[in-house]
Amino acid sequence: MPAQKPRGQEPAGGKADGPEDGELVRRTAAGDQQAFENLVVRYEVPLRKLVYGYVLDWETAEDVAQDAFLLAFRKLDRLDEHAAFKSWLYRIAINRAHDELRRKSRWRRRLDSNVGDEALAELPAVGAESAVEARLLRRSIVRGLARLPKAQRSAVVLKDVVGMKYVEIAELLDCPIGTVQIRVHRGRRSLRRLIGEAGSKAGGGRR
Questions:
Q1: pLDDT tens-digit map of 6-40
Q2: 148 and which of 56, 129, 153, 166 could share a cystine (Cβ 3.0–4.6 Å)?
Protein backbone atom coordinates (compact mmCIF):
# COMPACT_ATOMS: atom_id res chain seq x y z
CA MET A 1 0.00 0.00 0.00
CA PRO A 2 1.31 3.52 -0.75
CA ALA A 3 2.76 5.39 2.21
CA GLN A 4 0.52 7.81 4.09
CA LYS A 5 1.03 11.49 3.32
CA PRO A 6 2.30 13.75 6.12
CA ARG A 7 -0.54 15.38 7.99
CA GLY A 8 -1.36 18.94 6.98
CA GLN A 9 -0.88 18.33 3.23
CA GLU A 10 -4.24 16.71 2.54
CA PRO A 11 -7.55 18.39 1.69
CA ALA A 12 -9.84 19.26 4.57
CA GLY A 13 -12.69 16.99 3.54
CA GLY A 14 -13.73 14.02 1.49
CA LYS A 15 -14.14 16.01 -1.73
CA ALA A 16 -11.20 16.74 -4.00
CA ASP A 17 -10.45 17.70 -7.59
CA GLY A 18 -9.54 14.94 -10.01
CA PRO A 19 -11.03 11.64 -11.16
CA GLU A 20 -14.11 10.21 -9.45
CA ASP A 21 -13.70 7.45 -6.87
CA GLY A 22 -14.92 4.77 -9.26
CA GLU A 23 -12.28 5.67 -11.81
CA LEU A 24 -9.54 5.61 -9.18
CA VAL A 25 -10.76 2.22 -7.94
CA ARG A 26 -10.62 0.83 -11.48
CA ARG A 27 -7.11 2.20 -11.98
CA THR A 28 -5.99 0.68 -8.68
CA ALA A 29 -7.39 -2.69 -9.67
CA ALA A 30 -5.39 -2.42 -12.89
CA GLY A 31 -2.18 -1.97 -10.91
CA ASP A 32 -1.93 1.82 -10.61
CA GLN A 33 -0.92 2.34 -6.96
CA GLN A 34 -0.84 6.12 -7.40
CA ALA A 35 -4.58 5.95 -7.99
CA PHE A 36 -5.09 4.45 -4.54
CA GLU A 37 -2.75 7.06 -3.07
CA ASN A 38 -5.14 9.66 -4.48
CA LEU A 39 -7.99 7.97 -2.62
CA VAL A 40 -5.95 8.03 0.59
CA VAL A 41 -5.28 11.75 0.21
CA ARG A 42 -8.95 12.36 -0.53
CA TYR A 43 -10.33 10.52 2.50
CA GLU A 44 -7.68 10.39 5.23
CA VAL A 45 -8.90 13.51 7.05
CA PRO A 46 -12.62 12.58 7.26
CA LEU A 47 -11.66 8.98 8.04
CA ARG A 48 -9.51 10.07 11.01
CA LYS A 49 -12.38 12.23 12.26
CA LEU A 50 -14.78 9.31 11.91
CA VAL A 51 -12.55 6.88 13.80
CA TYR A 52 -11.67 9.43 16.47
CA GLY A 53 -15.36 9.89 17.18
CA TYR A 54 -15.52 6.21 18.11
CA VAL A 55 -12.25 5.58 19.93
CA LEU A 56 -11.74 9.09 21.40
CA ASP A 57 -7.99 8.64 21.31
CA TRP A 58 -5.91 10.36 18.65
CA GLU A 59 -3.06 7.89 18.40
CA THR A 60 -5.48 4.97 18.19
CA ALA A 61 -7.53 6.81 15.56
CA GLU A 62 -4.41 7.24 13.41
CA ASP A 63 -3.61 3.53 13.67
CA VAL A 64 -7.17 2.38 12.97
CA ALA A 65 -7.55 4.72 9.99
CA GLN A 66 -4.29 3.52 8.48
CA ASP A 67 -5.35 -0.08 9.06
CA ALA A 68 -8.68 0.62 7.35
CA PHE A 69 -6.89 1.92 4.26
CA LEU A 70 -4.64 -1.13 4.24
CA LEU A 71 -7.61 -3.50 4.48
CA ALA A 72 -9.42 -1.60 1.74
CA PHE A 73 -6.37 -1.85 -0.52
CA ARG A 74 -6.06 -5.59 0.07
CA LYS A 75 -9.78 -6.28 -0.42
CA LEU A 76 -10.48 -3.86 -3.24
CA ASP A 77 -11.38 -6.74 -5.56
CA ARG A 78 -14.36 -7.49 -3.29
CA LEU A 79 -15.90 -4.05 -3.83
CA ASP A 80 -18.87 -4.21 -6.17
CA GLU A 81 -18.28 -1.95 -9.15
CA HIS A 82 -21.61 -0.20 -8.51
CA ALA A 83 -20.94 0.33 -4.78
CA ALA A 84 -19.61 3.60 -3.38
CA PHE A 85 -15.98 3.39 -2.28
CA LYS A 86 -16.52 6.04 0.39
CA SER A 87 -19.29 4.13 2.20
CA TRP A 88 -17.38 0.87 1.87
CA LEU A 89 -14.21 2.40 3.32
CA TYR A 90 -16.15 3.97 6.20
CA ARG A 91 -17.76 0.62 7.05
CA ILE A 92 -14.33 -0.98 7.22
CA ALA A 93 -13.13 1.80 9.52
CA ILE A 94 -16.18 1.57 11.79
CA ASN A 95 -15.78 -2.19 12.12
CA ARG A 96 -12.10 -1.77 12.97
CA ALA A 97 -12.96 0.93 15.51
CA HIS A 98 -15.45 -1.41 17.20
CA ASP A 99 -12.81 -4.15 17.26
CA GLU A 100 -10.38 -1.75 18.90
CA LEU A 101 -12.92 -0.71 21.53
CA ARG A 102 -13.59 -4.32 22.42
CA ARG A 103 -9.86 -4.96 22.67
CA LYS A 104 -9.31 -1.95 24.92
CA SER A 105 -12.16 -2.41 27.36
CA ARG A 106 -10.80 0.29 29.67
CA TRP A 107 -10.71 3.02 27.06
CA ARG A 108 -13.03 5.38 28.97
CA ARG A 109 -10.61 5.56 31.89
CA ARG A 110 -7.94 7.01 29.59
CA LEU A 111 -9.93 9.89 28.16
CA ASP A 112 -8.39 12.73 30.13
CA SER A 113 -4.79 11.66 29.50
CA ASN A 114 -5.28 11.04 25.77
CA VAL A 115 -7.28 14.07 24.66
CA GLY A 116 -4.55 16.18 23.09
CA ASP A 117 -4.72 19.59 21.42
CA GLU A 118 -4.62 18.13 17.92
CA ALA A 119 -7.38 15.64 18.60
CA LEU A 120 -9.60 18.27 20.19
CA ALA A 121 -9.12 20.53 17.19
CA GLU A 122 -10.98 17.97 15.07
CA LEU A 123 -14.21 18.57 17.03
CA PRO A 124 -16.66 21.45 16.60
CA ALA A 125 -16.90 24.04 19.37
CA VAL A 126 -19.85 26.18 18.30
CA GLY A 127 -20.55 29.08 20.64
CA ALA A 128 -17.12 29.26 22.24
CA GLU A 129 -15.87 32.83 22.60
CA SER A 130 -12.19 32.09 23.22
CA ALA A 131 -9.60 29.42 22.55
CA VAL A 132 -9.66 28.33 26.18
CA GLU A 133 -13.44 28.10 26.20
CA ALA A 134 -13.36 26.14 22.93
CA ARG A 135 -10.89 23.66 24.39
CA LEU A 136 -12.99 23.15 27.52
CA LEU A 137 -16.11 22.70 25.41
CA ARG A 138 -14.40 20.11 23.23
CA ARG A 139 -13.23 18.20 26.30
CA SER A 140 -16.83 18.12 27.50
CA ILE A 141 -17.94 16.89 24.07
CA VAL A 142 -15.41 14.06 24.19
CA ARG A 143 -16.58 12.96 27.63
CA GLY A 144 -20.19 13.23 26.50
CA LEU A 145 -19.60 11.17 23.37
CA ALA A 146 -18.04 8.46 25.51
CA ARG A 147 -21.28 8.17 27.46
CA LEU A 148 -23.73 8.09 24.56
CA PRO A 149 -25.29 4.81 23.44
CA LYS A 150 -23.32 3.41 20.50
CA ALA A 151 -26.08 4.02 17.95
CA GLN A 152 -26.45 7.67 18.96
CA ARG A 153 -22.70 8.24 19.08
CA SER A 154 -22.28 6.81 15.59
CA ALA A 155 -24.98 9.06 14.16
CA VAL A 156 -23.73 12.21 15.90
CA VAL A 157 -20.12 11.60 14.90
CA LEU A 158 -21.01 10.96 11.26
CA LYS A 159 -23.24 14.04 11.08
CA ASP A 160 -21.47 16.61 13.24
CA VAL A 161 -17.82 15.54 13.19
CA VAL A 162 -17.41 13.97 9.76
CA GLY A 163 -20.05 16.20 8.15
CA MET A 164 -21.97 13.56 6.23
CA LYS A 165 -25.51 14.05 4.93
CA TYR A 166 -28.40 12.13 6.46
CA VAL A 167 -28.86 10.08 3.29
CA GLU A 168 -25.18 9.09 3.33
CA ILE A 169 -25.35 8.09 6.99
CA ALA A 170 -28.48 6.02 6.36
CA GLU A 171 -26.72 4.19 3.54
CA LEU A 172 -23.60 3.64 5.64
CA LEU A 173 -25.46 2.37 8.71
CA ASP A 174 -28.05 0.50 6.63
CA CYS A 175 -31.08 2.07 8.31
CA PRO A 176 -33.88 4.50 7.33
CA ILE A 177 -33.13 8.22 7.16
CA GLY A 178 -35.78 8.83 9.82
CA THR A 179 -33.94 6.53 12.20
CA VAL A 180 -30.71 8.44 11.62
CA GLN A 181 -32.44 11.76 12.25
CA ILE A 182 -33.90 10.48 15.52
CA ARG A 183 -30.52 9.16 16.67
CA VAL A 184 -28.82 12.46 15.85
CA HIS A 185 -31.55 14.44 17.61
CA ARG A 186 -31.44 12.29 20.73
CA GLY A 187 -27.66 12.16 20.72
CA ARG A 188 -27.36 15.95 20.47
CA ARG A 189 -29.93 16.38 23.23
CA SER A 190 -28.04 13.98 25.49
CA LEU A 191 -24.75 15.71 24.70
CA ARG A 192 -26.19 19.10 25.64
CA ARG A 193 -27.42 17.65 28.91
CA LEU A 194 -24.09 15.99 29.69
CA ILE A 195 -22.13 19.12 28.81
CA GLY A 196 -24.47 21.18 30.98
CA GLU A 197 -24.01 18.81 33.89
CA ALA A 198 -20.24 18.96 33.48
CA GLY A 199 -20.36 22.75 33.47
CA SER A 200 -22.52 22.82 36.58
CA LYS A 201 -20.13 20.52 38.43
CA ALA A 202 -17.14 22.60 37.37
CA GLY A 203 -18.87 25.78 38.45
CA GLY A 204 -19.80 24.27 41.78
CA GLY A 205 -16.24 23.18 42.36
CA ARG A 206 -14.97 26.74 41.99
CA ARG A 207 -17.21 28.14 44.71
A1: 343 334 344 456 899 999 999 999 999 999 999 99
A2: 153
Instruction: Tell me how far apart the alpha carbons of residues 26 and 198 are, in angstroms, rounded to a whole number.
Output: 49
Task: Please tell me whether residues 4 and 94 are part of one structural domain.
Answer: yes
Q: Is residue 175 part of a domain?
A: yes
Contacts of 97 (CB under 8 A, 6+ apart): 50, 51, 54, 55, 64
Residue 200 to residue 190: CA distance in whole angstroms: 15
Q: Output 140-146 pairs: Cβ under 8 A, ≥24 positions apart.
A: 140/194, 140/195, 140/198, 140/199, 141/191, 141/195, 142/56, 142/111, 142/115, 143/111, 143/194, 143/198, 144/190, 144/191, 144/194, 144/195, 144/198, 145/53, 145/56, 145/191, 146/56, 146/108, 146/111
Q: What is the per-residue pLDDT across 98-137, written as a single tens digit (0 to 9) for each?
A: 888 877 654 444 444 444 444 445 555 445 455 555 566 6
Whole-angstrom distance, CA of residue 113 vs CA of residue 152: 24
User: For the chain, what is the largest distance between any 2 Cα atoms, rounded to a whole number of angstroms?
Assistant: 66
